[in-house]
Amino acid sequence: MKKIFSLIMLGTTVAVAQVKSPDDNKRNDIRYNLNESGSHYVKFTFTNQVWLRLNDNNPGTTVLSDPKTSTFDIGLRRTRMQLFGQLTDRIFFYTQFGMNNFNKVSAFPAYNTAGTPSQRKIAAFFHDAVGEYEVQRKGNNFIRFGGGLTIVSGFSRFSQPSIGTIMTMDVPVFAQATVDQTDQFSRKLTVYSRGQIGKLNYRLAIADPFPVETSGSVPAALNQNSVFAQRKNSKQFQGLLIYNIFDTEDNTTPGYMTGTYLGKRKILNLEAGITSQKNATWRKDAVDTLYSSMTLWSVAAYLDIPLNAEKGTALSAYAGYFGTDYGKGYLRYNGIMNPATGTTQPIAGVGGTHGNAYPMFGTGNVIYAQAGYKFKDGLLGSQGTLMPYASLQRGDYDRLQDAADIYNAGVNWLIKGHNGKLSLNYESRPVYKNSAPVNELAKDGRKGSWTLQYQISI
Asked: How far apart, in Å, are the Cα atoms of 366 and each of 68, 243, 299?
């Protein structure tokens, strides 16, 4: 009993030693220092994003076999926990556990319309599990090597977004190009190197994509349009170069790139990235099976700067051009946390066209831009400030007669920066129908959705 009591007292003493600090009221993290300087530590974070959404559904939409022209749903867009730390000067680890897109129909895929049993308790999983070793460090310059399950990517900044610091209510998911097809919610088993050399930040990676058969959905049948191949799987090669004109960015965690620093840093970056995989997709041409390499590349500029440091005003903006070659005829619909389960008006040559889905991925090119303005600190007194924003995504895909233009506009109520914020967003998306030639889609009006998000992050 004395030994147990002594251990409890020791644990209490250590805990008190960790929390008593003159900076306690300024701290926004849960952190345990492993040395006196705090350079070695273990840190825990938690993020939860609750969505309340009113959606104008695509034509023919059904929810659990009931026709629905509109839906109101409540869901958890993301619920994540991170545990990571610097164990020595050179050894770093990072893990993330959580779930995504959890609403009342999230465990009821569109092909399960017969009402056979589903399981809503399977959504949480490890997103990341990574170990890193730093081989060189001189000032802000460093070179690290790592491996594991990770989101480290070469395609673009928004292929590896820090979801707790997003400026717009959600990220442009088209940049997570193979999401839940040959990856685990954008993560792959990967070995990589990342580093900062002067003004240049880099990421180089070799990934081993998952078979599309393990995606949790029935793989698309081999047809005239390219779909992810079920044979001849090969490694994926990725590279991203970022030139920092002003400040360098936060490089603590592997991959994850900040959405907006809310004026805390002066950032202007020029970025270029590429992802390439041989024999990634296949298609049928008469009696022949043809394979295509997947090549994704982007060039972009990112700005996030304070305008008036004393008032706390800031500007954030991004513009990028994306080349997306998945193979001839590739086109994929996707609806974020789709509130529906099926449709009575399917579109030939594509699946999952119900609810809030639109042609998100395809062979062609995409232009994406966003901008936001942060008002002065204390605009709402002790209740924080506001940051309105807008974004445009234009997907000009080969099988679309008219480009898919997606508009978003909204405002963040920054109650305590990114740690506690409310976001109200309106999205306008295009609707398509089959058209001649038979393999192409023509625009058939627009639909919209209103979403209120409450984010808690620590």
From this structure: 31, 22, 11
pTM: 0.92
| Tokens 């994509």, residue located | 209
Q: How far apart are CA 455 and CA 421, in angstroms?
A: 5
Domains of the chain are: 64-457 (2.40.160)
Length of the chain: 458
Contact partners, residue 31, CB within 8 Å, separation at least 6: 38, 41, 42, 43, 44
**Secondary structure E strands in 198-266:** 200-208, 227-228, 236-244
pLDDT tens digits, 368-408: 999 999 999 999 999 999 999 999 999 999 999 999 999 99
* 3-class state of residue 37 by DSSP: coil
Other beta carbons within 10 angstroms of residue 133's beta carbon come to 13
Are 150 and 186 spatial neighbours (Cβ–Cβ below 8 Å)?
no
Over its C-alpha atoms, the chain yields an Rg (Å, rounded) of 23
Would you state the structure tokens that stand for residue 79, as one six-digit string?
A: 């619920």
